[in-house]
Amino acid sequence: MAAVAMLAGVSSAAVYEVGDKTGWTIMGSPNYTLWASSKMFHVGDTVVFTYNKQFHNVLAVSKADYKNCDATKPMATWSTGNDSVVLNTTGHHYFLCGFTGHCALGQKVDIRVASSSAAPSEAPTPESSGGGAPAAPSPHPNAASKALVAGRSVAATVAASLLSLAAAVLA
Ligand SMILES: [Cu+2]
Predict the structure, then answer these.
(1) Is 101 within a domain?
(2) Which residues surround ligand 1, an ion (CB under 5 A)?
């Protein structure tokens, strides 16, 4: 059951390319505020910044620095041209391009990660709907008992070889 829950968690994580096909640029004055508002970000999601690293980079900044386009004290910097950033916390994640003038031209994005309690898209797991017997039988009802039998025969074999070892030592 734990494995099922983990798989569900992984499958719910999404990857978003910032600006979609436009990428991270000032060409055409993309509206990253509009782009961000069209998504619903959750903890564990990844945003990918794709850009020409000769002309752009990605800085994670504070809210104040985001507002002021202040690139002088970033909390983190990416500059490979293809940077994946995992959104590990709820709340706002502020990014801007550190190249002169680019932020002022709109190359900045405020990505708000919803708190889990405000995430209606998270479907309840079967476990959370109450106890009781599983709704459906396991597709392999005999697998567990077969494994158990196999484990016992291995244990028996080990015990037998230990006994013969002991017998050999004592002889
Ligand atoms: Cu730039």
Answers:
(1) yes
(2) 56, 97, 99, 102, 107
pTM to 2 decimal places = 0.63
DSSP state of 139: S
Give the domain CATH number at 45: 2.60.40.420
Q: Domain count of the chain?
A: 1
- Residue 67 Cα, ligand 1 centroid: separation in angstroms? 16
Q: Which domain holds residue 90?
A: 15-147
Going from the Cα of 76 to the center of ligand 1, the distance in angstroms, rounded, reads 16
3-state secondary structure of 27: coil
The pair of three-digit structure tokens given for residue 131, joined into one six-digit string: 């106890």
Q: Phi first, then psi: give them for residue 163, nearest 5 degrees.
A: -65, -45
Tokens 């106890």, residue located: 131
- How does pLDDT run across 87-105, given as a tens digit for each residue? 999 999 999 999 999 999 9
- What would the pLDDT profile of 31-78 be if each residue is shown by its tens digit? 999 999 999 999 999 999 999 999 999 999 999 999 999 999 999 999
Give domain status of residue 8, yes or no: no
Distance 102 CA to ligand 1 centre (A): 5
Query: What is the Å distance from ligand 1's center to 136 Cα?
Result: 54
